[in-house]
Fold this protein.
Amino acid sequence: MDNNNSNSQKTGKKIFALNIIGNEEKSKHKGFGAGSIDLNSMSPVIIDGDEAYIDIGAMHAKSKVEKGIKFSMNREDVPAGRQVWVVWVAVDRSPEGQFYGGMTACEMWIDTEARRGWKILADHVNKMDYALKRRFILDGLSAEQRGALKKLLIETNQEWWDRSSDELKTSLES
């Protein structure tokens, strides 16, 4: 008898495990977890002041700026905070190659000294979903922030930028 079964028999509780589904398994998988989102084509970019950088930790709310911060849903709880953005960048593929296919920006406010922050988690999740659905929502980003994001995207992969839509390129014009 394996350990999990003996533990579940003793406590009477079911033990759940998360299954990692490989790409070849997705088409065959019909049970629990079907319809799960593939985040392999998603990257988070942090825009803090005039600096834009990729921070994979943001996928789990553990980016450099979020670590050690207690978040509230009340903006008033962070009166001395600075505005920071998470930009969800989805990369897509066409016969010509990969390109930046969707991009959405989510606002948060961080007070590093007080270790307090504000963000609406549901907004971050919804905007991630919109980026995966190949939408561009960059409302709220200043001209400088758009310029920093554009520079980062081009420096990261010029060919992806070149193949990206005119809608994206126009939305990032300063």
About this structure: Residues 127 and 134 are 11 Å apart (CA to CA). The first strand starts at residue 42 and ends at 48.
